[in-house]
Design a protein that fits this description.
Number of domains: 3
CATH superfamily of the largest domain: Rhodopsin 7-helix transmembrane proteins
Largest sheet: 8 strands, mixed, barrel
CATH topology of the largest domain: Rhopdopsin 7-helix transmembrane proteins
Number of helices: 15
Strand order of the largest sheet: 12-13-21-20-19-18-16-15
GO molecular function, one term: G protein-coupled receptor activity
CATH class of the largest domain: Mainly Alpha
Protein name: EGF-like domain-containing protein
Main location: membrane
InterPro entries: EGF, GPCR_Rhodpsn, Notch_Cell-Fate_Det
Radius of gyration: 37 Å
Number of strands: 27
Keywords: Disulfide bond, EGF-like domain, Membrane, Repeat, Transmembrane, Transmembrane helix
CATH architecture of the largest domain: Up-down Bundle
Length: about 625
């Protein structure tokens, strides 16, 4: 509408004109785009499904069932019937009409397999005696008593020669086995076994003569007949360029085998950490690698390491996560762990809040024990919150897309979270020791116990404990850093201990913080009962056993708390002393369970004492706390 008139007008969109914008300015179809170049004729750029000079004709070559076995069809040229099929796994061909050959392998080997390559090889009529590679598959962490199914990509038959190469951390750990050796190359499905009797040794291990071993390759080949004649049990052997079989008359039949390099030379640095060995393959313009990890190291990059006397949330929980998969597709163990941690945080929030509201009252904290319990409730809840943040951190780095991850924030979280979790956990243990020691002093002093002195000691003891625990693990933030998997761009927070003395120091510190609180709580529980029994027995001249029973019944709140703390600390102590270096899934479940059980004291339930009769009226506003105790 004009400002000085009641007339209206239409502002037309692109490609339209006229008073009512109902006249097209281009001769192209509405779904296409018109491109003008000066005075030249306009060109119509058609969308998918249309063709012609004006894009007015429609045709879809994928309208009919063009691809077999549920393959996805994509038009390549709308002017013709050309299209491309994206085949489902296990199928190939222009129309996905062929099914790939399938090989089922069961492993019955003695040695552990860190990584392996299965190679489908065959012979060409035009190149006599030369093995050529059809397909290679790189696998990691194979169960020596398990089984797998693999496919010969873009081939309808299993190759006549299928080889299994196994790798370890050291170069000397290389092994070669024959999986398939057949004359008939037309078998589409086959089952075989990887057994020790089908292992091929290096020819140097069979010659047994150092002089013969040092011969040049051409001279050494002439001696291969001796190997088969002297060792009838030998089925096959190999050298740097040949793969030889001993036939029924103990004569060697050698084929030329071109060994491709497995050294990771396409990366600037070795992606495998903690001493892992990088193994690569190049297969049909596809490059991939895996890591052969040393003992007690796990993960795609050997980034998870387990050391004695230490239990880390990253290692125990990270081993079970499937990177890149949504939470709904994670294993039941991962989902269960998340549920348990959430329950721990919520229950701990309630119990620690009740404990705090009880002991924040002046009458409940007139002695050191009340102040210790007040501080303990704050430390425990903070520790549970850090555990929850740590869980979110691990899940976020593994399940989120790489583009959504802020590496600067993750670097600081990686350095701080595990450090905070460790010192808060240890500080909670040592605070329970302070409570136990004060109870022992109270029993020894009796009526001479000074509450004012007890309150003054709390300030010094808590400060010393915080400095001691924080200084003990000050090396942790310095040893943690972020690494990225070059294939999936998945981010991991890893720990690197560079020198042996650092490993020894960390083991000793963990032992001190494990055994120290455990021993002190155990000693205080025994000392309390024994001292009370002796004192009462001297006064009342009664039988020691009867007096012991009376004291246990009367002062059970002083004895039960240390005993519960001892029982809850036992799983963590036992699992820390026993090496968690295992690849058995059920053992890792046991270690995760023991690790989560060790967080139960942070709920503050075992350390809440039953209020004595004079304290009950003061605790009336928090009666739920009394029930919880």
């Amino acid at each position: 509408m004009y400002a000085n008139s009641n007339e209206t007008y239409c502002v037309c969109d692109s490609s339209w004109t006229g008073q009512n914008c109902n006249i097209t300015t281009t001769h192209c179809h509405l779904s296409s785009r018109c491109i003008r170049s000066g005075s030249l004729k306009s060109i119509c750029v058609c969308t998918v499904g249309y063709f012609g000079s004006r894009c007015s004709a429609s045709f879809d070559p994928c309208a009919v069932d063009s691809c077999s076995y549920h393959g996805q069809c994509y038009p390549t040229d709308q002017r013709t019937t050309r299209y491309a099929c994206l085949c489902n796994p296990g199928f190939f061909g222009i129309r996905c009409e062929f099914q790939e050959a399938e090989l089922r392998v069961s492993f019955e080997l003695n040695e552990e397999i860190s990584a392996c390559i299965i190679t489908f090889t065959d012979l060409r009529p035009s190149q006599v005696g030369l093995l050529f590679v059809q397909h290679r598959v790189l696998l990691k962490s194979i169960d020596v008593h398990g089984h797998i199914t693999i496919r010969n990509a873009n081939e309808m038959a299993v190759s006549r020669f299928v080889l299994l190469e196994t790798f370890g951390v050291n170069i000397s750990d290389y092994r070669l086995h024959i999986l398939v050796l057949r004359r008939n190359p037309t078998v589409q499905s086959l089952t075989t076994r990887a057994i020790e009797s089908n292992r091929c040794s290096h020819v140097d291990a069979l010659l047994l003569n150092r002089t013969l071993i040092e011969l040049v390759p051409l001279a050494k080949v002439k001696l291969y007949a001796r190997v088969c004649q002297r060792s009838p049990a030998v089925k096959c052997f190999y050298d740097e360029a040949h793969l030889c079989f001993c036939d029924v008359v103990n004569a060697p039949d050698c084929l030329v085998r071109i060994r491709e390099s497995t050294v990771c030379d396409k990366l600037p640095i070795n992606p495998c950490i903690h001493g892992g060995r990088c193994i690569q393959i190049s297969n049909q313009n596809h490059w991939d690698f895996t890591c052969a990890c040393p003992a007690c190291t796990y993960g795609a990059l050997c980034q998870l390491t387990i050391e004695k006397y230490t239990l880390s949330f990253d290692v125990l929980f990270g081993r079970e996560i499937r990177p890149g998969f949504p939470f709904s597709k994670q294993s039941p163990l991962v989902r269960t762990c998340v549920g348990i941690v959430v329950c721990l945080i919520l229950i701990g929030l309630i119990l620690n809040a009740l404990c705090f509201s009880t002991f924040v009252q002046p009458s409940a904290s007139d002695a050191g024990v009340g102040i210790y319990l007040l501080i303990l409730s704050l430390v425990n809840q903070f520790g549970l919150c850090v555990l929850g943040v740590k869980l979110f951190f691990v899940l976020h780095t593994q399940l989120s897309s790489p583009s959504s991850i802020n590496h600067h924030v993750l670097l600081h979280a990686c350095a701080i979270l595990e450090y905070l979790l460790t010192i808060l956990f240890c500080l909670s243990d040592w605070l329970t020791v302070c409570i136990s020691i004060e109870r022992v002093i109270n029993v020894i002093k009796g009526v001479n116990f000074s509450k004012s002195m007890s309150r003054r000691l709390v300030k010094y003891s808590c400060s010393c404990l915080f400095v001691f625990t924080a200084a003990s693990f000050i090396h942790q933030p310095l040893n943690r850093h972020i690494i990225t998997d070059p294939r999936s761009l998945t981010v991991w927070c890893v720990k690197s201990v560079h020198t042996p003395w650092q490993q020894k120091y960390e083991s000793v510190i963990y032992l001190i913080h494990l055994i120290g609180p455990f021993s002190c709580n155990a000693f205080s529980a025994v000392f309390l009962v024994v001292t009370l029994t002796r004192n009462k027995a001297k006064v009342y001249k009664k039988n020691t056993m009867k007096m012991l029973q009376q004291q246990l019944a009367q002062h059970k709140h002083l004895v039960v708390s240390p005993i519960i703390l001892i029982l809850l600390a036992l799983p963590r102590l036992i699992l820390s002393l026993v090496s968690a270096c295992t690849k058995k899934p059920w053992l890792n479940i046991l270690f995760i369970g023991g690790y989560l059980i060790s967080f139960l004291p942070l709920l503050d339930q075992p350390t809440l004492p039953t209020p004595s009769p004079p304290q009950i009226p003061e605790s009336a506003p928090t009666q739920i706390a009394e029930v919880a105790t």
